[in-house]
Task: inverse folding
């Protein structure tokens, strides 16, 4: 019995530690006390620990060994972690998405920003096929207006995007660049919008690239979809 009680106590403690990590990681990152990746790593480690503690709690409960508060909290935290992580399931481990993998918009202003000094901002060729397999819906927006009018519409849509800071808007070249910063962890990603004439109208392409990590949990593709939705409503 003492051994069983000891295991129960350890599971409760593990559950509380997991929850503490899941809460402290985002808070520390939000307060900018730690870099985004560190805060996210703390959160992720806490989430994985919560899953382990939660499964162990279910096994212990099935064996009628009790269900302490720490294990109950861990089980709830594990479900929260799984739900928040689920959008990234099945997304390839790439961090650069675009509506035109064959001729992606190129970053210019982003290259001059201090966080990007020394970084390769080109679009990796192997990403094109991976993107097509997971996100075939990412396609250019066709706008039935002149390039000048399409550019103003594209800039207006960029101004409406939450967390975006426009760093360049060159109407003559039809290029808009922005930095998108996530609210909680503070991840900053670079975005470029390109407007070109196409037939009787215009074509708008978008590219979104993460500064951190090898994968992005689907964030960049979702950002492009959101922007194109705003652009479409602007018409």
Result:
């Amino acid at each position: 019995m003492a051994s069983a009680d000891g295991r129960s106590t350890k599971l409760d403690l593990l559950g509380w530690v997991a929850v503490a990590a899941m809460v402290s990681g985002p808070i520390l990152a939000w307060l900018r006390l730690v870099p985004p990746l560190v805060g996210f790593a703390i959160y992720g480690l806490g989430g994985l620990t919560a899953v382990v503690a939660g499964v162990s709690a279910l096994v212990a409960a099935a064996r009628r060994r009790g269900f302490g508060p720490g294990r109950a909290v861990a089980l709830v935290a594990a479900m929260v972690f799984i739900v928040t992580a689920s959008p990234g399931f099945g997304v390839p481990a790439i961090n650069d998405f675009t509506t035109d993998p064959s001729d992606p918009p190129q970053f210019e202003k982003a290259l001059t920003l201090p966080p990007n000094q020394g970084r390769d901002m080109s679009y990796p060729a192997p990403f094109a096929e991976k993107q097509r397999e997971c996100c075939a819906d990412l396609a250019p927006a066709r706008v039935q207006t002149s390039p000048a009018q399409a550019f103003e519409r594209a800039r207006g849509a960029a101004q409406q995007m939450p967390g975006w800071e426009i760093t360049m808007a060159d109407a003559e070249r039809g290029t808009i660049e922005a930095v998108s910063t996530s609210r909680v962890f503070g991840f900053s990603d670079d975005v470029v919008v390109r407007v070109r004439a196409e037939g009787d109208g215009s074509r708008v392409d978008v590219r979104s690239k993460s500064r951190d990590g090898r994968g992005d949990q689907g964030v960049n593709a979702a950002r492009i979809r959101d922007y194109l939705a705003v652009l479409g409503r602007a018409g």
Summary: The two ends are 70 Å apart (CA to CA).
